[in-house]
Design brief:
Elements (H helix, E strand, L loop, with lengths): L1 H20 L2 H10 L2 H8 L4 H10 L2 H15 L4 H11 L10
Helix pairs in contact: 2-4, 3-5
Length: 99
């Protein structure tokens, strides 16, 4: 239902706002460890100026992967595909990566 997706996007917006309110170095520590599918959704909604501070403090490999994903997404022919991916990550607990 559209009400559910509105609630989901409101919840997601609050996550974005929470990261925007964090110190860039603290956000970077978390971003380094986040699964890419989640990270890309958050990073693409954070204010670019704030995101650039965070990106600069991330581990180079993580920052590089994120940059590639953001660039890939920016080059997406159909923007509809991008928004269609959003609800998939809502409310689903992603398994922690075990290294």
């Amino acid at each position: 239902s559209s009400q559910k997706s509105e609630a989901d996007s409101a919840r997601f917006k609050s996550i974005v706002t929470m990261y925007e309110g964090m110190k860039p170095k603290d956000a970077a520590k978390v971003f380094d460890r986040l699964e890419m599918s989640v990270l890309i959704e958050i990073a693409s909604q954070i204010q670019p100026r704030k995101m650039s501070d965070i990106l600069g403090l991330m581990m180079p490999e993580a920052a590089e992967r994120l940059t590639v994903e953001l660039a890939r997404r920016a080059g997406a022919d159909k923007p509809a595909e991008v928004s269609a991916e959003l609800p998939k990550i809502e409310g689903k607990v992603l398994p922690a990566k075990t290294n």
